[in-house]
Amino acid sequence: MSANSGETTILRPAAYVPGGRSVIAERGWAWIAAGWDLFKKQAGMWIALMLVALVIFVVLALIPFVGSIALSVLSPVFGAGVVIGCRAIEEGHGLEIGHLFAGFKEKLAPLATVGAIYLGATIVIVLAVMLVSGVSIFSIAAGGDSAAAPAAILAVLLAVLVSLALMLPLFMAVWFAPALVVFQGKSAVDAMKESFSGCLRNILPFLVYGVVMLVLSVLASVPLFLGWLVLGPVLAASLYTSYKDIYLS
């Protein structure tokens, strides 16, 4: 009901915006604030879910070779479970630990494909940068001149910057992919294209989002990283709130 006129307001389902829409820069902060609101509704369950996820990731990381591969491939699957949990909170069903594994029941194949593409692209980028920078450093060192040390350091720094520049588009392609797969039924490739498009159209909001998250990350890390028990869930929830803001009209 409308508070002013007393007329009934019909709420229609939000329409999907292909490729995402552009929003103002201030929305970057709004995504975090909305993520905090979702966290407050079930803070205890969020922290429990965060701890379970942390244990799973640590165990996988300790398994040589196979664990690292599994972690990369399955990360979008777990991410999809989190956004499904966020939607459940909004719908009044409540967040459960089981939501962390909901991606294994819904769209497992495309979600895992997103992770596999991300892993493959990362390996290609790392190998290419290592090859180019390695040749440069080797050629500098082969000169046998101690004055070449600054040039070698510069080559390493350049390699780091190049790798970050190449990884950024990949991050953009993966950011919204889990939500687009589970909520919009996109294939892995289409979801990554749509995610990249949505991020590209919202550089300024993401700049604000990144700066605020950087500051909060430093603050959360000071007391023995305990602040991440709160910031981690807020960050996860903000993936869902930003998805809604950009892709749903």
Overall description:
The structure is a single chain. By secondary structure, the chain is mostly helical. It has a domain at 27-120 and 174-247. Helices cover 73% and strands 0% of the residues. It has 9 helices and no strands. It has helices spanning 27-41, 43-62, 66-90, 108-142, 149-175, 177-184, 188-200, 203-221, 228-247. Helix 2 packs antiparallel against helix 3. It is globular. Mean pLDDT is 89; it is low at 1-11.
Features:
249 residues; mainly alpha; 9 helices
Layout: helices, strands, pairs:
Blueprint: H1 27-41, H2 43-62, H3 66-90, H4 108-142, H5 149-175, H6 177-184, H7 188-200, H8 203-221, H9 228-247
Q: In angstroms, what separates the terminal alpha carbons? A: 21 Å
Profile the largest sheet: none
Helix content: over 70%
The chain-level structural class is: mainly alpha
Order of helices and strands: HHHHHHHHH
Counting DSSP E segments of at least 2 residues, the number of strands comes to: 0
Q: From the alpha-carbon coordinates, what is the Rg to the nearest angstrom?
A: 21 Å
Number of helices: 9
Rounded mean pLDDT score:
89
Measured by DSSP, the beta-strand proportion falls in under 5%
In one word, what is the shape? globular
Return residue spans where pLDDT drops below 50 for at least 5 consecutive residues: 1-11
